[in-house]
Amino acid sequence: MSGALRRIALIASAGAAICACGADTEPGAQMGPSGLPHPRAGLWRWASGAAGVRQLCFSGQVLTVLAPRPGCTALRQVMTRDGAFVVEAHCAAGPVRRIYAKAWGDFDRAFFTNVTVGDASDHAEYHYIGPCRPGQKPDDAP
Fold first, then answer.
1. Is residue 52 part of a domain?
2. Which one of 13, 24, 39, 55 is most buried, by most CB atoms within 10 A?
């Protein structure tokens, strides 16, 4: 795994963090983890400003950048008036203290994310291609 891809994997697994200043403060309806989006299972084209373009196999579980993280307490999990999902959390230990991620779009065909971890930010676009290859392990599997 390349250094850039490893960094994006860290961003995805961290859930996307940002310092308190500059965090998106859009109001929205609180929701639990079960209300967060589940992208369609299958092969997706992922275009990341930080890591380039790849194909990812998704299993259909909660979008990784929005999923709850061990050791982190959700401060806010909302769906905004415009249909975007925003997750902010505080992590008690580790290099990431504040988590922030925003995702919007059609989670069956095309969606977008904004993710920030510390000083590193990324915008990514996801476009559904079709089924994963036979036997392909999902990239979002634990």
1. yes
2. 39
Q: SS3 of 95, please?
A: coil
Asked if residue 105 belongs to a domain, the reply is yes
Round to whole Å and give the CA distance between 10 and 135: 25
pLDDT tens column, 63-83:
888 887 788 888 889 999 999
Tens digit of each residue's pLDDT (9 = 90 or more) over 4-22: 444 444 444 443 333 333 3
The string of DSSP letters for 59-84 reads -SSS-GGGS--TTEEEEEEEEETTS-
Q: Is residue 136 part of a domain?
A: no
Q: Side-chain half-sphere of 64: how many Cα atoms within 13 Å?
A: 19
- Domain hosting 16: range is 3-130
Can you say whether the dihedral through the CA atoms of 104, 120, 32, 27 is positive or negative? Answer: negative
How many domains does one find in the chain? 1
Is 140 among the domain residues?
Answer: no
Judge contact between 140 and 41, C-beta under 8 A: no
